[in-house]
Amino acid sequence: PELRDDDLKVVGDLGAGNGGTVNKVLHKETGLYMAKKLVLIDAKPAVRKQILRELQIMHHCSSEWIVSFYGAFLCDVHVGICMEYMDRRSLDGIYKKHGAVPIDIVGKISEAVLRGLTYLYDEHRIMHRDIKPSNILVNSKGDIKICDFGVSGELINSVANTFVGTSTYMSPERIQGGNYSVKSDIWSLGISLIELALGRFPFMNDDDQDDSDNDSDLEEMRRTITGRDDGQGRVVEDKKPKQDKPPKPPRQHQQAGGGGMNMSILDLLQHIVNEPAPRLVPAGKYPVEAEQFVEDCLRKEPGERKSPKELLLYPWIVDSRVTKDDLERWAISVD
Ligand code: ATP
Ligand code: MG
């Protein structure tokens, strides 16, 4: 029988993103906990019904690397999506609370995402489109699964802020508006892996800046990147001595998401396209196998980037000694 909103009782709050809010709910009949995501769809009823139809594909997505789907329904201006409840939630929350993820665990996260991507592509010919730490979920059994993949074209079109929410993990070719493929998901994976290993969003730190032209743009860049986010969304002033120049008016455009610097989204997109890809830093801190893997995820030319299947054969993945028990222990520790 189709799942209905009336069958569910809200028991908790799991978070909110650009596209919607997520609650922990109890399926009254079975006693099963689920995660219910409500996505606000500002569109005609016909479009909402189309989205609902497209979401039904998820009933056929069944893999240990993919968060299970229980059903979707219309609920006034929202589309409700019910999925498997993952009791350690997403990796962004985990690293923001517990700090950088140990590199060997990051290796297993890579493997899980690659297996999930391979499943989606081989079985359903779909790419994910939104790989990032908040869409990689963990439970206390040590399972790692991906969610929020782009099954419904109408849903992608209808969610108001898709661009802002996802742009910071976007590959250069996607930013430039060209054709893109699963290779674009691999770029997003590479960015996510660095973020988890470093415990911070990888773009822009002081070493990244070049001092070639000392014009006002560079000055403005400096100014915008020295105000750092404290992780609670507030911008913290740097301890550097204040300059005498009057401050410039704040930028009008959107701030980049992804939990990092106070850099405008346009600056960030330009940076991704024009500058060398980020790496695991400092060099030598992490195993060379991890460095190599990340570097090959972040080839700027999509043709040179590796595919999920190729990456699954990398020594970092194949030679990993992390067991399921280790993953479970780690998952239990990040409560
Ligand atoms: P964006 O809207 O930019 O994609 P997001 O992925 O954080 O960001 P949502 O997908 O709405 O936004 O999810 C909000 C939060 O809810 C996530 O960060 C995650 O921690 C939590 N969450 C989502 N799905 C589940 C789930 N199935 N089980 C447990 N927690 C979940
Ligand atoms: Mg999400």
Helices and strands in order:
Blueprint: E1 8-16, E2 20-27, E3 32-40, H1 45-55, E4 69-75, E5 78-84, H2 91-98, H3 103-124, E6 136-138, E7 144-146, H4 153-158, H5 162-166, H6 172-175, H7 182-198, H8 216-226, E8 228-229, E9 235-236, H9 265-274, H10 288-297, H11 308-311, H12 315-318, H13 324-333
Antiparallel strand pairs: 1-2, 2-3, 3-5, 4-5, 6-7, 8-9
Helix pairs in contact: 3-7, 7-10
Short structural description:
Helix 7 runs antiparallel to helix 10.
Explain what this protein looks like in three dimensions.
This protein is α+β, with helices and mostly antiparallel strands. It has 13 helices and nine strands. It has helices at 45-55, 91-98, 103-124, 153-158, 162-166, 172-175, 182-198, 216-226, 265-274, 288-297, 308-311, 315-318, 324-333; strands spanning 8-16, 20-27, 32-40, 69-75, 78-84, 136-138, 144-146, 228-229, 235-236. The strands form three sheets. The protein has a five-stranded antiparallel β-sheet with strand order 1-2-3-5-4. Strands 6-7 form a two-stranded antiparallel sheet. It has a two-stranded antiparallel ribbon with strand order 8-9. β8 (228-229) and β9 (235-236) form a beta hairpin. α7 (182-198) runs antiparallel to α10 (288-297). The chain is globular, with a radius of gyration of 21 Å. Adenosine-5'-triphosphate binds next to β1, β2, β3 and β5.
Write the H/E string, N to C.
EEEHEEHHEEHHHHHEEHHHHH
Most strands sheet: 5 strands, antiparallel
Name the hetero compounds present: adenosine-5'-triphosphate, magnesium ion
For the record, give the distance between the C-alpha atoms at the N and C termini, rounded to a whole number: 34 Å
How large is the radius of gyration? 21 Å
